[in-house]
Specification:
Blueprint (H helix, E strand, L loop, with lengths): L10 H21 L3 H21 L8 H22 L7 H15 L15 H21 L4 H8 L1 H22 L10 H24 L8 H13 L1
Helix pairs in contact: 1-3, 2-3, 4-5, 7-8
């Protein structure tokens, strides 16, 4: 499965997300949305996902074993979404920063986590860090929800996900052939920011083109009109 995705490793996320949505759909139908039963099924699927790290030497097609672990976060998001909607207190930047620092500190005690290859290290630390980090990002989204740049990136995150590796390769080619700098000499934070910003700028014309031809993204033509209305309204 991984060999078929080496040309664009980011695609693993889309196949896993598709399976997660299918699994959760059947979980929700089976439990009729009852929180207690849904939580029980979520724990069972999470346990099966972790067991797969011990029993399987390679990923299943479409990273199905990873989907068993990922559906835990999907379920938690479903169960917690109303609480976030009704949250009255506006999270402070200090709280967000504290959660991110705590996440980084706890993760320092765990081994490297790589969901793409079904590697989580310590199970408790994995879930604790994932949930704390997710809470921090959600709280930060409350603080920056009016940012037009972040809104634009969020609406077009799928396009960026799919095309980012091509953009990074173009940036590296520019650095090597255009600037005459060895890629091995660009392993610093400043160059990372350069690659990131450059890649995102390369995505802008791609997003513009695909918004005019939404059929290339599997969307009906009227989706482009709705997108243009949202963009102009924003």
């Amino acid at each position: 499965d991984e060999a078929r995705l080496t040309h664009n490793p980011a695609i693993w996320f889309l196949t896993t997300l598709f399976l997660v949505e299918m699994i959760f759909f059947f979980m929700h139908r089976l439990t009729k949305g009852k929180p207690a039963v849904l939580i029980l099924l979520t724990v069972l699927f999470g346990g099966a996902g972790y067991a797969s790290t011990l029993l399987l030497d390679q990923s299943l097609p479409w990273n199905a074993n990873v989907a068993l672990t990922a559906v835990v976060f999907y379920s938690i998001g479903f169960l917690a979404k109303q609480w976030f909607v009704e949250l009255k207190t506006d999270p402070t930047l200090l709280l967000c920063t504290g959660l991110l620092v705590l996440t980084a500190y706890m993760q320092s005690f765990n081994s490297r986590v790589d969901m793409r290859v079904n590697d989580y290290g310590d199970l408790f630390l994995f879930y604790a860090c994932a949930l704390l980090g997710s809470a921090a990002v959600i709280y930060l989204s409350f603080k920056f929800k009016t940012s037009p740049i972040l809104t634009y990136l969020g609406r077009n995150s799928i396009v960026i996900l799919v095309l980012q590796f091509a953009g990074i390769d173009i940036m590296k080619a520019f650095v090597y052939y255009g600037l005459g700098i060895n890629i091995a000499d660009t392993a610093q934070l400043s160059w990372t920011l350069f690659y990131t910003i450059g890649t995102l700028l390369l995505m802008v014309p791609c997003i513009s083109f695909l918004s005019k031809y939404p059929i290339l993204l599997g969307k009906p033509a009227k989706a482009a009109h709705r997108y243009e209305q949202k963009t102009s309204a924003g």
